[in-house]
Amino acid sequence: MRRLLPRGLRTRLVVAFLLVSALSALTAAALTFHQARAAILDRARDSAVHQLRAQVNSLAPDLPYAPAETDLRTLALQLDRAGGSREGWRTAATYRDGAPVSAAGPAPALPASLRHAASSAHTAVVQRFHHAGKPWLALALPVTREGHPSEPSGLIVYASFSLTEEQGDVATLLSAARAGALPVVLLSVVPALLAARRVLRPVRQLRSAAENMTAGALDTRIRVTGDDELADLGRTFNTMAATLQADAATLRAMESRARRFAADVSHELRTPLAAMTAVTGVLNEDAGSGRLAPETAEALELVADETNKLGRMVEDLMEISRFDAGAAALDLDEIDIGELVGKTLGLRHWQDRVGVNVPQGLRARLDPRRIDVVLANLIGNALRHGGPSVPVDVQARTEDDRLVLTVTDGGPGIPQDTLPHVFDRFTKGDAARTRSEGSGLGLAIAAENARLHGGTLTAANAPGGGAVFTLTLPQEPA
What positions does the domain HAMP occupy (predicted)? Predict the structure, then answer.
């Protein structure tokens, strides 16, 4: 369904301004028209009443005390002649309850309500009506006795005439009012555009400032003038921007210190760990030769395992630190994907536990060391969480000039609450196992290596059960 109202705020303001202007112009034109129309009709009425009254006052004294029909006809004839240029001017006269008598022919058209009102009135009665589809005005003037203004004589004089000329004047006035309203509305477009521009200038500044802040320019501020609501909004925006800039600077400083701390700790731990690994290696040889007591050999094996885990964690921390510092670089080479997967499995003695489905001759340009790290993390996780008896499959294919590698296991899958955070640092697939072989950084490092190649790494659960990790890489890295 299409929206009836315009979408843009500027358009809405202009339309609203034009509507107000049009309503004001039409209201003013309507009021002017009604007042002018009333004035025209009142002038016609007053002029006719004054003219009829003057003629009656000059002719009535010559009438007999009880005028006959011929006297009434003569009076009507004289009044008809006094009508001048009025269109359709006709008069009639009645005495007591007699019928109206006109000069010639039938009496003029008179509303019954006018005659009824005139029978009990002491002054002129006026009524507008329509006759033959045209507007008319009818007058009834009761005549009083000479010298006794409050005593009716029984004589009532009637007159009616067409208001066609006045109607033409009213129509002309209406056309002029309509024609005058249109230019007013058209001319109001200019002040409407100027007003909309003035009102929307702060809004455009706010939008531009918000876009700059979205792009990272947190030092953006807008110039505020005035004391209206938009000015208050601008001051609020500047306060918000200053707060965000301060908070962002604090967070960046804290993040930088945390990264530096992790990198420094990892670097400092490498030397003692190397010495510990060398010592535990020598002691392991002694334990293997039987020169150490069984309890000592078991404790030594435990220390060696934990030392190796700590060494792997330190290496993972160093790798994450390089990604954070932007120091990670690609060493691209054209390699065979099948050979790369085979070497990854062979180095870790996984070839008997993992199924491989890679087309022969499938090649891509990538960093073999980093993709080996990605595959090792994905396959290692699948083997650990899927169980020793659960098959793990590695597949490769091309889709729309992109290399797609998938690692699938038949295990229980990834919990739904863990799935959105599976690539977060220090997130482990099984939160119940507080001690595991992983550091919680393997999948995070794998995702960073995928991004470094311009690709993506996603995780999902297969419909039939098990986890599916999909590595998508461009054939030519971005």
Answer: 197-249
